[in-house]
Amino acid sequence: MPDLPRGARLGVDVGKARIGLAGSDPDGLVATPVETVARVSAVPTTAEGDPAVTADVARIAAEVVERFAAVVYVGLPRHLSGHEGAATADARGFATRLAREIAPVPVHLVDERMTTVAAHAQLRAAGRKTSQHRPVIDQAAAVIILQHALDVERATAGRAGEHVEP
């Protein structure tokens, strides 16, 4: 892809309790699971009133640095109808905080409808019992989010999704 800079990509599946993280190779060909990060539920503010950097955002920012990531894709949970709800607003807020922390590395929001359902189906097809899904389901969803974004990059020679301003 001549129009896109070389570098790993990260995929993020933001949940209420956990955040799934996936990564790609520097050429952006294949998404693989990285880890599950505990979600920080309350976001403190700085003396200036801005949101403080939480442990979850800091962990993802460290992964961006370690992998020399070129872009981070955050899943945007919409209703099947396409409408946005509370989970969408939460993901947008998280993506904005992450974008501030990792700038100038861009953050893009990509539609993640049905990724958790697809992740459960893939884990079942791989022979994993449903009771074993919880520790890895968020990573599996992040892999689906990232692989979709990589496929869009290859098809369009551009970044997938909606750019998040830091």
UniProtKB/TrEMBL annotation:
Domain YqgF/RNase H-like: 7-119
Swiss-Prot/TrEMBL keywords: Cytoplasm, Hydrolase, Nuclease, Ribosome biogenesis
Pfam families, A to Z: RuvX
Entry's Gene Ontology molecular function annotations: hydrolase activity
Localization (cell): Cytoplasm
Top EC class for this record: hydrolase
Entry keyword annotation includes Nuclease: yes
Cell inner membrane keyword on record: no
EC number(s) given by UniProt: 3.1.-.-
SMART domains hit by this protein: YqgFc
General function of this protein: Could be a nuclease involved in processing of the 5'-end of pre-16S rRNA.
Family: Belongs to the YqgF HJR family.
Protein name (database record): Putative pre-16S rRNA nuclease
Species annotation: Isoptericola halotolerans
Lineage: Bacteria, Bacillati, Actinomycetota, Actinomycetes, Micrococcales
